[in-house]
Amino acid sequence: MSEPAGVAIEHVSFGYGATRVLDGVSLEIRKGEFFAFLGPSGSGKTTLLRLVAGFGTPDSGRILIGGRDATRQPPWARNVGLVFQNYALWPHMTVAENVAFGLQRRRVPRAERDRRVRAALDLVGLAHLMDRRPAQLSGGQQQRVAIARTLAIEPEVLLLDEPLSNLDAGLRAGVRAELVELQRRLGLTTILVTHDQEEANAAADRMAVLNDGKVLQVGRPAELYDRPASRFVAGFLGTANLIEGRVDGGAFQAGGARLPLPPGAASGPAVLALRPQALRLLREGDATLPARVLRAEFLGGHVRYILEAGEALTLVAEEPHLRGLDPLPPGAPVGVAIDASQATLLRA
Amino acid sequence: MSTTALPAATGRPWRARLRFDASPVQVAAALLVLAFLLAFLVVPVGRVFLAAFTDGEGRLTLVHFGDFFRTSLFRESFLNSLYVAGMSVAVASVLAVPLAVIVSRFRFPGAALVSTLGVLPLVMPPFVGAVAMQLVFGRNGSLNLLLMDWFGVRLELMDGLNGVVFVQALHYFPFILMNLSASLSNIDTAMEEAGQNLGARGFTLMRTIVLPLALPGYLAGASLVFVKVFDDLATPLLLNVTNMLAPQAYLRVTSVGLGDPMGYVIGVILVVVSILAMGGAALLLRGRDYSMQQRGGGGLGRREMSAGQRALAWAFVVPTLLLVLAPHIGIALLSLATVWSFSPLPDGYTLAHFSTVLRETPQFLTNTLLYCGLAGLIDVVLGVTIAWLVLRTRLPGRRVLDMLAMAALAVPGLVLGIGILRSYFGVQLPDGTALATSWIMLTIVYAVRRLPYALRAATAALQQVHRSLEEAAENMGAGKVTTLTHIVIPLMAGGLAAAFVTSFATAAVELSATLVLATRDVDAPLSYGIYVFMQSPAGRGAGAALGVIAVLTVAVCTFAANRLAERERRRRTRQQGTAP
């Protein structure tokens, strides 16, 4: 190994009493990487982040930060910066006092401390508000102070716990872009915890999908979207048709319909995952599969069709919407063309 | 209301702005409440102030205050009162702060014990406990007799001012304990974790994050203790300490007479110091109520204790519990004792005291039930009316009623009593007795003194009834009155019952105003009976028996009120649970 990982999580298990929260989790977050833990609530992603910060000790396994074993280090000795979901700004201190706190604990001399407080606040564009109390700031400003407070200690790793969930929807995309830009500029190893796939997709270099305390899949966002390894990942990332059926004689049989298959599939029960945009609707001419429109949902940029094919096969297809193209009415017959290279075959 | 909706554009703007936005029923209700508060709160207190600031011919003067500060006894009393109040806060803090930290920051197996310990003192009025404390901790009390026997030393815990401090601190420390525990457990876990994440731990974390955030709770409790002790009349009187402000005022008014200005001067000083203490605390706390600013997260995480810490905690909790229980045990023993003097425990036991008080002076009990029950009812009616006017109407000036009613908090019972005497002594009832010293007035004074609590409870209860619940009833065709009787009152019932019980129980052990206003044994309530019996060594057994009855009454009522409030809270969380 040339350079130690930013954070290495090795076979970590953790539970409260009889409840298992994390079950043998292993992950390697590279130095300087923007990594995301993505999963539904209760998946263990926040617990894992808190273990990295030192709030709790794994029942088994190790956590290495910058190559050193931090498993039993208390939170105050780790030098990882955690931005809390609710920001946790201390209401009895000013913005500047909040940001200076970690530097005071590190006995940074006065002049140096003042300089770094200002620098951290400059970084998030809030130096002019340093004498305010947290209660006098907007939600977005509070979040930036929380980030500045964490950056001021120059942490080895930046941990973000659902940092955008307390912001108005309108603010999120902008703040997310700022976060990514800041992370790239500082080259800081960063872990983002989120349940929002769009957030993880847009921000992370790589991500891990967690469910029920286990890591299901790790990879670049597009990789996970295109090649989900399990039904859960396929369904959790974006919309997918998850069709239960059998591989039989080079085709996929489901609900009385025959669907094309990616090459090299073994016979037996299976699940076929198909993204809605992999189904092309043909209004006339030859089609792989004849179908009927059950319902159309007009979503602005595209139209989502709920279709019925065969005897009892329901499919979701999406088609870009352009002016002059009226959505098909319920009952309309359509042909569905399926690109077999876009299909993923999963174990049943 | 349908009459209020038209915009000003259709008429002349100034008329729209001046429109009197109320129905006749609302106006009548407001006027009745106002008349009650004026007659029995504003006028009496006003008369006290007037008497303190005017001379014989009714001219404004400060001469009485000059006299006050020129008299060495008064100067001494003033300083003594400040000393006793301040020291009581200090001693109460020594008991309360460790307990609050233990129960709200650690997983401590005795936490339930501590919360019990937190209410026990409150069910026993300090003047009841005072005599028992003398028997246990006094110069010739159980503790000192044992200490003399074993070690040849004597602790002067109950002598003079220190005795008052000891009794008051032991009685009032729960106020600090409850407020501080509440604010400690309101601190969001993330507040502390953020500190740890940035490098703070142990004592530094405590000093920089936890204590500053808990300070508001401590100050709220401490200022309350200060004011209660500063204004208290009964405890010093029972301990025979007269060189304090409240006893001096009482002695002046009862022995020198209503014409003497010094009682009123002291009354003014009591009110002003109370307001200064409360206002000072409020000023210190301004902008520091952090409870609403901490979003999300749970309470402060309770951490495991090491074996040593647990031993230390038990070593503090057990003696404190014994200390707190001492007056309860003492009063129970005294009520059952044949003779208890110069011995650690009574010589023998008997139920005679209980039969004596039940046979010879049953009126103390029945009077208390009548007066305090009526006072509780008056409070619930006034509380609901004011809460309704404030929250559900647009009656101009409705907040004044709320402020006036709450102002009763700043008026010590003694001052209200003196004011009532001054205002109504000349008014005679048809049977020839003075209105001021009749049982009716006693009931009214109890109602005025307890109104703030009932009002807060009624306001809270009405706030919980969401406007949409009433609107839904109206939408189904119910009129205002039907909505009130079928929707609002049933939904408020739990809160109102708790308010009634609280008013009743606290009125049952009020003594400051009672001492000033009650004159005849036949009309007097329980608290007065206890005081009279306790004056003579021979009557102490009977006094203690009444005391036990009073404590049990208050304990049962407090328990009932807590249960009601708890049930109400659970019902509400259920309601919220089903909301989307």
UniProtKB/TrEMBL annotation, chain A:
<dbReference type="Pfam" id="PF00005">
    <property type="entry name" value="ABC_tran"/>
</dbReference>
<feature type="domain" description="ABC transporter">
    <location>
        <begin position="7"/>
        <end position="237"/>
    </location>
</feature>
<keyword id="KW-0813">Transport</keyword>
<dbReference type="InterPro" id="IPR013611">
    <property type="entry name" value="Transp-assoc_OB_typ2"/>
</dbReference>
<dbReference type="GO" id="GO:0022857">
    <property type="term" value="F:transmembrane transporter activity"/>
</dbReference>
<keyword id="KW-0547">Nucleotide-binding</keyword>
<dbReference type="InterPro" id="IPR003593">
    <property type="entry name" value="AAA+_ATPase"/>
</dbReference>
<keyword id="KW-0067">ATP-binding</keyword>
<dbReference type="Pfam" id="PF08402">
    <property type="entry name" value="TOBE_2"/>
</dbReference>
<dbReference type="InterPro" id="IPR017871">
    <property type="entry name" value="ABC_transporter-like_CS"/>
</dbReference>
<dbReference type="InterPro" id="IPR003439">
    <property type="entry name" value="ABC_transporter-like_ATP-bd"/>
</dbReference>
<dbReference type="GO" id="GO:0005524">
    <property type="term" value="F:ATP binding"/>
</dbReference>
<protein>
    <submittedName>
        <fullName>Polyamine ABC transporter ATP-binding protein</fullName>
    </submittedName>
</protein>
<dbReference type="GO" id="GO:0015697">
    <property type="term" value="P:quaternary ammonium group transport"/>
</dbReference>
<dbReference type="InterPro" id="IPR027417">
    <property type="entry name" value="P-loop_NTPase"/>
</dbReference>
<dbReference type="GO" id="GO:0016887">
    <property type="term" value="F:ATP hydrolysis activity"/>
</dbReference>
<dbReference type="InterPro" id="IPR050093">
    <property type="entry name" value="ABC_SmlMolc_Importer"/>
</dbReference>
<dbReference type="GO" id="GO:0043190">
    <property type="term" value="C:ATP-binding cassette (ABC) transporter complex"/>
</dbReference>
<dbReference type="InterPro" id="IPR008995">
    <property type="entry name" value="Mo/tungstate-bd_C_term_dom"/>
</dbReference>
Automatic annotation (TrEMBL), chain B:
<keyword id="KW-1003">Cell membrane</keyword>
<feature type="domain" description="ABC transmembrane type-1">
    <location>
        <begin position="78"/>
        <end position="277"/>
    </location>
</feature>
<feature type="transmembrane region" description="Helical">
    <location>
        <begin position="368"/>
        <end position="391"/>
    </location>
</feature>
<feature type="transmembrane region" description="Helical">
    <location>
        <begin position="82"/>
        <end position="103"/>
    </location>
</feature>
<dbReference type="GO" id="GO:0005886">
    <property type="term" value="C:plasma membrane"/>
</dbReference>
<protein>
    <submittedName>
        <fullName>ABC transporter permease</fullName>
    </submittedName>
</protein>
<comment type="similarity">
    <text>Belongs to the binding-protein-dependent transport system permease family.</text>
</comment>
<feature type="transmembrane region" description="Helical">
    <location>
        <begin position="157"/>
        <end position="177"/>
    </location>
</feature>
<dbReference type="InterPro" id="IPR000515">
    <property type="entry name" value="MetI-like"/>
</dbReference>
<feature type="transmembrane region" description="Helical">
    <location>
        <begin position="403"/>
        <end position="425"/>
    </location>
</feature>
<feature type="transmembrane region" description="Helical">
    <location>
        <begin position="209"/>
        <end position="230"/>
    </location>
</feature>
<keyword id="KW-0472">Membrane</keyword>
<feature type="transmembrane region" description="Helical">
    <location>
        <begin position="262"/>
        <end position="285"/>
    </location>
</feature>
<keyword id="KW-0812">Transmembrane</keyword>
<dbReference type="Pfam" id="PF00528">
    <property type="entry name" value="BPD_transp_1"/>
</dbReference>
<feature type="transmembrane region" description="Helical">
    <location>
        <begin position="312"/>
        <end position="340"/>
    </location>
</feature>
<dbReference type="GO" id="GO:0055085">
    <property type="term" value="P:transmembrane transport"/>
</dbReference>
<feature type="transmembrane region" description="Helical">
    <location>
        <begin position="27"/>
        <end position="50"/>
    </location>
</feature>
<feature type="transmembrane region" description="Helical">
    <location>
        <begin position="110"/>
        <end position="137"/>
    </location>
</feature>
<feature type="transmembrane region" description="Helical">
    <location>
        <begin position="542"/>
        <end position="565"/>
    </location>
</feature>
<feature type="transmembrane region" description="Helical">
    <location>
        <begin position="431"/>
        <end position="448"/>
    </location>
</feature>
<keyword id="KW-0813">Transport</keyword>
